[in-house]
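User: Before I run my own analysis I want an independent prediction to cross-check against. Here's the chain; please return only the structure tokens and, at the end, one sentence I can use as a sanity check.
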Amino acid sequence: MVLLSDNPSNEDTLGFEGMAEILHTVIRDMPEPPFTIGIFGEWGCGKTTLMKMVQARLNENEVKTVWFNAWKYDGKEVIWNALIQQIFYTIKEDPDLEQTERGKYLKARIKSAASNLAKYAAKVGVSLIPGGFVKPEVVDSVAEGLRPLNANDEQFEFINRFESEFDELVSAYLGNENRYLVVFVDDLDRCLPETAIAVMEALKLYLDRAVAALKFLYH
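Assistant: Structure tokens:
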């Protein structure tokens, strides 16, 4: 009897070689992204392993990828913020950008965009504070946090221009229109339904706009 590890692997222990190669070829040669691929199956059947194998092949072809584990953030923070912040983090930590002028430019812009996005997400998240948790002396502060955005707020201006700014950042990261970004969303099927919907809404809202960005969705 041979026992297989329950952990995902880049090695083909489940006979996924042919499927991984087909998915890799489809993604690599897709002429007009963005688009979405869904992988469906029972828990433990190897969906993450298949995704890891596809990612490894894409990385070998110098295709930029982002790995996002949706379940890791389920119920812990505003999920669309976590997704975008993971994309920002991946760009910022890309070794190809080390000690380059483009890297310095992107890191400076990401620092500002990520900070403002986090502030906006925190403002939205304040409304999720459970009853009885807030002390009376901070009620005014919470009320200010719950106040709807208006045209005078810096965050209102930010969120309205964020889509185009995100588009510009991804385009600058990729370098030219013939390259694309592949986003792997892992463990989406473990999330609460509202979390899964929020992730897909974020993919539609932000990654549909990003020039030459491709979405790869695991459900």
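Sanity check: The CA atoms of residues 61 and 152 lie 47 Å apart.
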